[in-house]
Amino acid sequence: MKKLVVGNWKMHGSRAFNAELINGLKAADLGATAPRASVAVCPPFVYLGEVAAALQGSGIAVGSQDVSVQAQGAYTGEVAGPMLSDLGVKYAIVGHSERRSYHTESDQLVADKAKAALAHGLTPIVCVGETLAEREADQTEAVVARQLQAVIDTLGGDLSRIVVAYEPVWAIGTGKTASPEQAQAVHAFLRARLTAASASAASVPLLYGGSVKPDNAAQLFAQPDIDGGLIGGAALKAADFAAIARAA
Ligand code: PEP
């Protein structure tokens, strides 16, 4: 399967910072990885249009970090799928652990956001993952199965156009990476759940996220069920993100 490497800029950046980062990414010629890996970046909403315009022709796609379940209306502060498609946005991250925990997003809300993204031509990148306490209580599979099941139930048979990102919460921004074996085990579990749910899900890309860096990316991406990465901190440095994309 072709790899996919997505940078999540989170709430970082400014017009000047973004311009420099984009120049660095363009200079790294990530479009050249195209036969083996697709690459995308997810800046904050306010910069999406500008970043999409700046990346035109570079081969790097643009994604959002969230999407509303509503298509339009009186929902102050929300950003709707049609607005994102209108800007040329390709992906929408849904259910990032920071949104699940700081904005109390439920499994069902995340699933509804995935459905809204699909309805408006966006590819949802559905994040799942357990906390450290859950891993230590041997609950990893139960937690990711529950998070994924809400999406499977909500989308019904239509699983062919989603991306799933396994992001153990204890590995996000902490410098602690799941070992390639730990990540592969959860990815194989997710793959089995997806294919059991729908034949259309056999080719769903499964990304790993959690302190992916240039020095651990190749080993992670070499695992049979790891189809790429969702990159946080390292996506803010052009050289690091380019090295990770090349590792794919
Ligand atoms: C993320 O937040 O999606 C992430 C994986 O962050 P980091 O790479 O910084 O751990």
Verbal overview:
- It is a single chain.
- With 248 residues, the chain is an alpha/beta fold.
- The chain has one domain: Aldolase class I (TIM Barrel, Alpha-Beta Barrel), CATH 3.20.20.70.
- The model has no long low-confidence stretch (mean pLDDT 96).
- The site of phosphoenolpyruvate has 13 residues, from strand 8.
Keywords:
8-stranded parallel β-barrel, single chain, 8 strands, 248 residues, TIM Barrel, alpha/beta, binds phosphoenolpyruvate
What spatial order of strands do you see in the largest sheet?
1-2-3-4-5-6-7-8
**Which structural class is indicated by helix and strand composition?**
alpha/beta
CATH topology label: TIM Barrel
CATH level 1 class label: Alpha Beta
Ions, cofactors and other ligands present here are: phosphoenolpyruvate
Compressed to H and E, one letter per element, the order equals EHEHEHEHHEHHEHEHEH
Structure in a nutshell:
The protein has 248 residues and is α/β, with parallel strands linked by helices. The protein has one domain: Aldolase class I (TIM Barrel, Alpha-Beta Barrel), CATH 3.20.20.70. It is built from ten helices and eight strands.
What's the layout of helices and strands?
Blueprint: E1 3-8, H1 15-27, E2 37-42, H2 48-54, E3 60-64, H3 81-86, E4 91-94, H4 97-102, H5 107-119, E5 123-128, H6 132-136, H7 140-155, E6 163-166, H8 180-197, E7 206-209, H9 214-221, E8 228-231, H10 238-247
Parallel strand pairs: 1-2, 1-8, 2-3, 3-4, 4-5, 5-6, 6-7, 7-8
Helix pairs in contact: 1-10, 5-7, 7-8, 9-10
This protein binds phosphoenolpyruvate.
